[in-house]
Design goal:
By secondary structure, the chain is an alpha/beta fold. The chain has 2 domains: 178 residues, Rossmann fold (3-Layer(aba) Sandwich); 169 residues, Rossmann fold, CATH 3.40.50.720. The chain has 13 helices and 15 strands. The strands form 2 sheets. An 8-stranded mixed β-sheet has the order 3-2-1-4-5-6-14-15, with helices on both faces. Helix 4 links the parallel strand 4 and strand 5. Helix 6 packs parallel to helix 7. The chain is globular, with a radius of gyration of 21 Å.
């Protein structure tokens, strides 16, 4: 198969869909790889490294899309890329279609076979989401702490406090990979951490492995209300695979929070779990509503593209090779790949995406 790796063009995005090491494995598996000129530079991989791995460097994104049977990316196509997508092409990337009806329609109109990293399931795991969730969770605590600084609009409280000064409080909504990563970082800084989730089995597990300054609560409307009243930093990491994130904190609820506190919405790629959230960028990351600082960067791991690209390639490569090497009619008999499939042959094949946009659901079975 001819595989294309275009340069990412979303604002402040410096990751790339595959490292040179990953390209080498694709070429060893018998595939041809086209890489757009300069695609890896933001992650520290120059064109010569891709050539050494067996790739061919093409100058134009139009040529990459036009010449490839399968496109491997990091982020969902944006408007300028819609016309570049080729009829019946395979697309393998983060898609987050529940938050983007227009892209969903484009993929259906062009009969794109779209596999989404974020919905691929192996048992109860989402293995292609996990590496970026880990990085985003850690970043959520670090950047939340930074924006608590007075000169960044926050309350002026140092997250971990100091000797003779009370610890500050962090509330984390969601106890998955991102939530645990955020809690590890916050606890390590010395904050008092409360994690909320509806999965009591997960909370029981975390209770036994997390430090003593991390408390577990079952997530209900009342427990969220009570927790956010004294919170200095709130981190939202809730996820329903493929679906829009539930709105757990409304605009009215901001009124009970301390002025100058910070909320970080890791769920923003799925529409955000705070009613007042809207996507921001690394160059302009925050805004304020009701005295509360909002950090809602939509591609958080893009700030650390070297680490993120390597971690993402490590996770996606085996699946990319399988997709490229297996006839579609065989591949789509596998429940794991069906879980990743979001559009196919003009239909939305992910039920929660179809529900989010009131579009008819088409099964491949």
């Amino acid at each position: 198969m001819i595989i294309g790796i275009p340069k990412e063009i979303k604002t402040d995005e410096f990751r790339v869909g595959m490292t040179p090491s990953g390209v080498l494995e694709l070429t060893k598996a018998g595939h041809s790889v086209l890489v757009e000129q300069g695609a890896g530079e933001g992650s520290g991989f120059d064109d010569a490294l891709y050539v050494s791995a067996g790739a061919v460097i093409w100058e134009s994104a139009d040529d990459i899309y036009g010449g490839a049977e399968m496109i491997i990316k990091v982020k969902e196509p944006i408007e300028i890329e819609y016309d570049r997508l080729k009829e019946s092409q395979i697309l393998f990337t983060y898609l987050h279609l529940a938050a983007d009806k227009r892209l969903t329609e484009i993929l259906c109109d062009k009969q794109i076979t779209a596999f989404a990293y974020e919905t691929l399931r192996v048992g109860r795991r989402l293995p292609l989401l996990e590496p970026m969730s880990e990085i985003a969770g850690r970043m959520a605590t670090l950047f939340g702490a930074i924006h608590l600084g007075r000169y960044n609009g926050g309350s002026g409280r140092l997250l971990g406090g100091a000797v003779g000064v009370e610890r500050n409080r962090v509330v984390i909504l969601g106890a998955g990979v991102a939530g645990k990563s955020a809690a590890d970082a916050a606890a390590g800084l010395g904050a008092e951490v409360t994690m909320l989730d509806i999965n009591t089995e997960r909370l029981t597990y975390l209770r036994d492995v997390m430090p003593a300054n991390v408390t577990m609560l079952t997530s209900t409307h009342d427990s969220i209300l009570n927790s956010i009243k004294e919170a200095d930093l709130i981190i939202g990491t809730v996820l329903v695979a493929g679906a829009k994130a539930p709105k757990l904190i409304t605009k009215d609820m901001l009124g009970i929070m301390k002025k100058g506190s910070v909320i970080v919405d890791v769920s923003i790629d799925q529409g955000g779990c705070f009613e007042t959230s809207h996507a921001t960028t690394h160059s302009d990351p925050t805004f304020e509503v009701g005295g509360i600082v909002h950090y809602c960067v939509a591609n958080m791991p893009g700030m650390y593209p070297r680490t993120s690209t390597i971690a993402l390639t490590n996770a996606t490569l085996p699946y990319a090779i399988k997709i490229a090497s297996t006839p579609l009619n065989t591949l789509l008999k596998d429940e794991m790949y069906l879980s990743a499939l979001n559009t196919y042959d003009g239909y939305v094949t992910n039920e929660v995406v179809a529900l989010a946009h009131s579009i008819s659901f088409g099964s491949c079975k």
